[in-house]
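Worked Example 4.2. Consider the chain below.
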Amino acid sequence: MPLVSIITPFYNAENTLAAAAASVLAQTFTDWEWILYNDCSTDGGTVISHQLELQDERIKVYSSEVQTGPSNSRNNAVVKSTGEFLAFLDADDVWFPEYLQHRLHDLNRNPGAAFVYGPAVYFYKNRTRTQQTGILKTDFFEPTELINKFISASASTPCPSTAVVRRHAFDRIKGFRAALVRGEDIAFFIELNTHYGAYFQATPLVNYRRHADSATSRANRAGDRLIKELNYCFWLYSFALEQQRSVWLRSAEYYYYAHLVEIAKEKPFFKSRILLFQYLSRSPLSFRAYLFYAFDCLLPFRLAKRVRYYLYRILS
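Applying the procedure from the previous section yields the following structure tokens:
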């Protein structure tokens, strides 16, 4: 039984899957299996995956009969896997050769960490830049220590391709939330840190591809990214409420409301206020937050922000 299971769901990845495969096959750590899960691809990615399966017996390809999305695809791939550790690799990303070796070394040195992650190097067609994670140095984080950083976005949640997770921790939280189309990775790492510690390795070991065919880019072109992310915002608020952490709740309220404003900004003034009021009227926000944010239904956003600031100063 291999020590590490590499988990890669893919959909129409013919332009990037070969590069991801080359990075897997180049790993200095070799005790792995690679689970490729085809989520109803319609391009040449299906052929490439089966060619890889014939090339190396450690590579196994599975296919879904209906398109299930990233959460279900990752969860279904994990069910097919056997490794003690789960290494997630999106089909358009690339690992450095020593990636798995370093991740396992860090997990072995930090038994209290359920997952280890680090920054990625974003690479575009003609340039690269290192991800700014909000965490400046290699460090261990206790359970719950990262959650408000993730919720408030003062620290970036891990890109799945940068994280290796202990299987028992994945099983405890039952994997990725299938109901979330957007933000499922953020929810996953928040839930992990609720119960377990985490280790951050500041050295970049992953190339994260930014391109027009990525899932994020497709959602942006479709124009429904912010709407889909509202489901994550509802989940986040419910999570903070369930955990009874006031700091998390305030951060979740602000995160949710910021998405409402971004959605409303896409409409003319009166239509945007009607839309914003409709969302607020059925939102999970606390009564205090509702009163603060209701100013935006009547005032320009900048003026409403000032009013809220002075009210906050008076009431604090």
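The chain has 13 helices and twelve strands. The longest strand covers residues 4-10. Compare this with Example 4.1 before moving on.
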